[in-house]
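Fold sample X.
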Amino acid sequence: MTDSASDKTNKGGLILWPALITFAITILRLEGELHHWGSVWFNTSAGGGGAIVGISWLPIVFGPYFALRLSKAGAGPANYRKAFGSTLGALAVMVLGAILVIVTEAHPGVLTLAGFVIMLVGAFVPLIGWRSLAQLPRFWTHNSLLMRSSNMC
């Protein structure tokens, strides 16, 4: 993200609503699980067990939200086709990794670990088409963190 794009993007406003919605869904899920409000909606198994109410679907909603907000602020991809293609490529890599994990789940081993590593790699594939997604805001950079810690001493 360039300095001008960083200036145009209000970081608090960018994350406020997604953070509040995520918090509300987390509280709702906690209440649903504690009060046993139906396993289709609130499943107590690890990862939610495919329950409808959960935070796992939030990247599907908030991913495009953040992409549109960053694009409007001038931090969009250089080529939208390449960005969309790399996103589809990432999805394919993630699915392949997940299939490998599922197939080897009965007897976990090196292949299961490989599946998780493949999924991790898939998370970085979109950077091929949209490099500014990996740029940290100025207040998160290494130098500013060092300056903050030295001021605390």
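Fold sample Y, listed below.
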Amino acid sequence: MASTLSCPRCQQQLERTTTPHGVFYGCAGCGGKALGVDVLRRTFARDEINAVWRRAITGEGTAGRACPSCRNAMLEVSATEGEQPLRIDVCRLCHSLWFDADELVRLTPLPPNVARASGLRDSDTRKPEARATPEWQAVAELLNSPVDWAGPAAQQPSKLWLVILGALAAALVAVLLRVL
């Protein structure tokens, strides 16, 4: 896996940018952007993003460019219909989407009240416990993932591990009850 993200269009190194909605990687050369599906869902109309993702995971598309992160072939899927359909490259492995310079502005942004209701805030105003720990940021960077743990504290990995451990404990109890 590469240590840096490269533009799938012009091969330049992508630059990391942090916004209130999360992290994206942009190309200074061609203006393209790589965003994780989670960041897109916090920024744009969820039905549009979910429709694109659904088309990608069902294989509705054609082979596209190499993913900026894992270098595997992305799938070019239709995001909109009409005279000038919007076609976006989607990496099903990395959960990232590539937008050429003029494509991202064609998506419908979330209304400000929906963004506030979903817990979006400027990173400066979030409580410290709602921020990703340096350890998890290092894991994301090690995996070369173009996403960020910028969500509310309830989405932090430590809570997920508690749920997983609880499920495993419940399964173990069920197995022991069957044996006895």
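Sample Y note: Residues 15-150 form one domain.
Also: Residues 53 and 90 are 8 Å apart (CA to CA).
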